[in-house]
Amino acid sequence: MPKLLNLLLAVEHGMKKPVWDCTMCGQCVLHSTGMTCPMTCPKTLRNGPCGGVREDGHCEVKPEMRCVWVKAYDRKVSLPLPTVWKEHYNDLRPPVDMQLKGTSSWVNLITKRDQQTPAGWAKRQEETHSH
Ligand code: SF4
């Protein structure tokens, strides 16, 4: 089994790195972001742009780079993506679980590992609700 997992990891990375500059966050959301990787945002924002987008649509951190979220919106509108993917654009995405970094998002999707809330976060949520 580890050999199969390693193979999937290598295939996923081999495909996504050249196309999306994928850093293997392990919880892929490409389908809902107009096939634009939010992890390429210098602030790794997964729920839309920050307040620093320049008037020309470029990034405040890297002025030479177009804002990932401006690009994501344009692509969501213009690419012939499945309607259901486009509908997921406005979903509220959970924070990145850094424990999944370097793992295969395909495997995590199948095993539903990417839907698990890390233990510390759940505790935090309970604390918040008890107040
Ligand atoms: S969202 Fe994560 S898995 Fe998907 S392309 Fe970006 S870094 Fe890779």
From TrEMBL:
<dbReference type="InterPro" id="IPR022026">
    <property type="entry name" value="DUF5981"/>
</dbReference>
<dbReference type="Pfam" id="PF12225">
    <property type="entry name" value="DUF5981"/>
</dbReference>
<protein>
    <submittedName>
        <fullName>Unannotated protein</fullName>
    </submittedName>
</protein>
<feature type="domain" description="Methylene-tetrahydrofolate reductase C-terminal-like">
    <location>
        <begin position="7"/>
        <end position="78"/>
    </location>
</feature>
